[in-house]
Each structure stands twice: as structure tokens, then as C-alpha cells.
Amino acid sequence: MYRVRSAARLRVINAPARAAIIEALRGRGAMTAAELADAVESTPGAVHHHLGVLRSIGLVADAGVRPSGRRPARLFVLTCDVIEIDPGTSPALAREKSRAGRRVLQRAARDLDAALTARCDDVELRLTRDLVRLSAADLRTLRRRLDDLHAFLRAADGAEHPHHIGLTIAMAPIEPS
């Protein structure tokens, strides 16, 4: 687990280009800068820059090399499966958490839009929204179960499977209307 404790560090991770690189590495594992550039629709030079920033904060690491054309290509991986944001209360961190939440929801909206336009007869699209009250203990249990679900999905992910599933769970304290 990678723990974010400052607004500055969250701002680094939250930059759209770096967030896209993190998502690509999370979804596909070890990748070269050229592969990442294709995945995030950027240039290899820009991706190298962002990888350097992510390496400097310990979120990305080198994972060896892969033989390629003229010279071997360096592989990059995430150093963790989960990024957790510290529940600090500084105003700067609160603003960055809000921005991060908006970006997650924007990506989920894009994924939902893609799912609605895709044709897949044997996968049901389900949208649910629940407003629930949880005790602190229940919230911890929910968090553990979500971590278990995330681990299950990562372990089940495989190229031989015919379906791509997008799952976004947003949990936020809200005031009922």
C-alpha cells in the first residue's frame, strides 16, 4: 500500500497525465515508456518525464528490460496495488482529495459512457446507488471486503477472458437530503 500524507504528493499523483499512467500500469502490469505512451495517448518523452516524477516519490520502479529493436526497453511497474490517502484535515489536503474524487468520478463516467455504447449481450449493466449509515467498525469491515474484492479482481484478470468489466465504487460521507 502506498500512503499519501500531503497535498503536494497527492497533487503529483492527481495530475491527469500521471493518473493515466498509474491506471495503465495498474491495469496491464510492467510496461515500457513506448507502450505507456500508446496507452495514454502521449509521447514517450512526456511519459518518461512523468515516470521520473512517479519514481522520485516511490510509486513507480524499474522492473528490468525487454529486448526490442535497436536496444532493450526499460520496463516500469507500480510499487503497490493500493494508494491510500491519509485522512489528514489540512485545507490543502482536503482540496486535493476533492479534486482526486472528481477525477475518479469523471473517469467512471467515461467508462460508463463506453459501456453504454458497447454491445455485449451476455453482460448485464447494473447501476446501483445506496445511502447507508455505518458504524466505524462496519466501515472498517467494508474497507477490508473492498480490498478483498480488489485483490480477487486483480487475480482473475487475464487476457484469455472475453469480458472487460469496469467497477467503480465511490464512498463518501454525505448529508442526507
Describe this structure as you would to a colleague:
51% of the residues lie in helices and 12% in strands. The protein has six helices and five strands, in the order E-H-H-E-H-H-E-E-E-H-H. The protein has helices at residues 7-14, 16-28, 33-40, 44-56, 91-117, 136-156, and strands spanning 2-4, 31-32, 60-66, 73-78, 83-85. The model has no long low-confidence stretch (mean pLDDT 80).
| Unreliable sequence segments | none
- Measured between the Cα atoms of the first and last residue, the distance is 35 Å
* Number of DSSP helical runs: 6
Mean pLDDT: 80
For the biggest sheet, the summary is: 3 strands, antiparallel
Shape: globular
Helix content class: 40-55%
Multimerization status: single chain
Q: Find the structural class using helix and strand composition.
A: mainly alpha
